[in-house]
Structure formats: C-alpha cells, structure tokens
C-alpha cells in the first residue's frame, strides 16, 4: 500500500484528527492512537468510529514514565497528529521544538496540528465546533436555509473537508518534501481556513461576480436551489429526485423526456420546451411545472426513466440504499481514490470492529518499544498504562 512503513502517532481527539489518521491508515500507514488512562474502577470508553486499521495504547501522560513512553514512540514516528487547542501538547512536553528544534529528538518528524480557529487569531483559545468555524469562514452565510437563516450541511465542510482531509493533505505534502530535503516540519491546519479553501469556487465567484453564480441572496442562485433545473423534487408515495441539468443540451434531454412521460391525467395549459431554460421570468412557472410533474409518478418510475440518459436526474438514495447500488459500496464507506499500483480499499468493516477499545494494543506496542514483561507490569500497577485486560500479562 502507498504509505506502508509510515509510522503515525495520533493523540486521541474528535472527528477531524481521527479522520486524518484514518486516511493515512487506510492507505497502509501504521497508526497508533494514544488514549488516556482511567482509574482501576473506571471503564475505558471510546466512541471514535474512525478507528479502522489503527492500534491503541492507553498512557497516563501526567506521569514521567508515561511521558517517556510517548517520547519513545515519537522518536521513532514519521508523523504526529495533534488534535488539541494551541499549547496543550507544549504543556505536556511534546511541543514541536522538542522534536524539530536544534537539539530535536526526531528532526524527520512531520508534526501535524489541527485546530478549529486560526492560530494567532482572536478566537484561538475559544471552544468551537463545525458550525462556528463555518460561520467565521464566510461560507455559512451563503448556504440556503429556511426562514431567511442559513442552513448547514451536517458537520462536513469544516470538520472533515476543511479539517481532517486538509490536514492529511498537508501531511502527504510534508512527507514528499522530506524525501527531497530529509527534514520534517510543522503542518498547521485550521478548520476556518480549511472550510474557506474547499469553498474556493463560491467564494471567488462572490468576490468577483459573474452571471448569477452566488451573486444573489442564498437560495436564489443557480447552484443553491435558485434555478428550477438544479434542485430536489418530491415524488409520488414519498422519495425524491435530484435534478442538475445545468447545460442546455442536458436540460433539453430532461424536459423532452419528462414531458413525454407525464401521465395523461397531468394537464397544464403551459408546456415548457428546451429553449425556455434561461427565461428568468418563467422560472417560477417552470419550477411549479416540474414540481407537479415529479409528484405524478414514483421515485422508482423517474429513476428508471432517466437511467442511462444525460438528463442529470437521479434518485436521492438513503444510506442503506446507497450501500447496495454499487458492488464496491458498503454500509461503511471505503477509502478513495483508488491507486492502480496499490490495494487501498478494505472490504466492509464489521460493525463491532469499527470502535477501537482504549488500550487494546498497549502491551503489544510497549513490547515493540523494548519494554519487557516486568516493566510493563510495573507500569500497569502504578497506573501509568491501561491494558485491555486490566493488568499486564507476564
């Protein structure tokens, strides 16, 4: 696999950091997640579902012996993923200078830091989530919603696209640069800037206005539901169809096929044709015509009708349906893109193995680091580590 032999240490965090680690693990990197320890009477709980292909070591970094374990891990690592607010790892004794400074312990380390608000900015020490980062990026204000307020697309744009994926992209660039220079470096990612970058197309159009592309209020532009030929429509008996026939030749295929398929009981005084697509005065009437038309038949009817055509009309699938429509799909998404020289698409992961128990590989990893059975037992007794079975096996 493309990243085979690459050693990654991921400090346990929320979605963006684990997603960056997942991308690396899915492509062959050896990813070790550092989890916290719990008291002997506590129950280690981890809800991170982005754990595929990773291993977990549970370490108490408040003890010197715990910090020594982490330092030994990082001395041998290629990549560190820091998901915390600015300064947290520095206070723990694992700041960039420890590894990349003049007397650094690992000058080849790629030190990847991912935060929500930009470092050095006025919000850098504040708590936040995807919706907050999206708000400061300027992108949220452009997303159509209901009642005049912006809507938001789950936590996809800032957390995962602008956060985890951008961080992984920076790591890959730094690894390539290390091949050339032999040196590691710090990769800084923040979700506000990342959300802006993945939204370059609408933001640039907004800054330099062109024909009806993000120049009108949200919900009034061609690509945000303002155009009747780029929207989602309800069908008979529930279900929806997506329509995206922007280009005139595609709209012509859609409207011609659509008109012919309407039942005889569907009667409208006005029947739109291909040449009326960009007649803005007729858009309200065109939208109502398409809306009523889709309601005349089921989603399955329209999906079958437009299948194999250039009408740009396909069914809106639920997650379980989407996992069945392509033989390469599954309930758990597989990594993409596919590289022709490497196998990088694991088959469906059983549900029970999605979540990685905290400390599942503690003893295994410590053994790899050179700790013997007695040392591991002592670390467990002094509560520097947790093992999956509660105590180390000698």
Automatic annotation (TrEMBL):
<keyword id="KW-0808">Transferase</keyword>
<dbReference type="InterPro" id="IPR003673">
    <property type="entry name" value="CoA-Trfase_fam_III"/>
</dbReference>
<dbReference type="Pfam" id="PF02515">
    <property type="entry name" value="CoA_transf_3"/>
</dbReference>
<dbReference type="InterPro" id="IPR023606">
    <property type="entry name" value="CoA-Trfase_III_dom_1_sf"/>
</dbReference>
<dbReference type="GO" id="GO:0016740">
    <property type="term" value="F:transferase activity"/>
</dbReference>
<protein>
    <submittedName>
        <fullName>CoA-transferase family III</fullName>
    </submittedName>
</protein>
<comment type="similarity">
    <text>Belongs to the CoA-transferase III family.</text>
</comment>
<dbReference type="InterPro" id="IPR050509">
    <property type="entry name" value="CoA-transferase_III"/>
</dbReference>
<dbReference type="InterPro" id="IPR044855">
    <property type="entry name" value="CoA-Trfase_III_dom3_sf"/>
</dbReference>
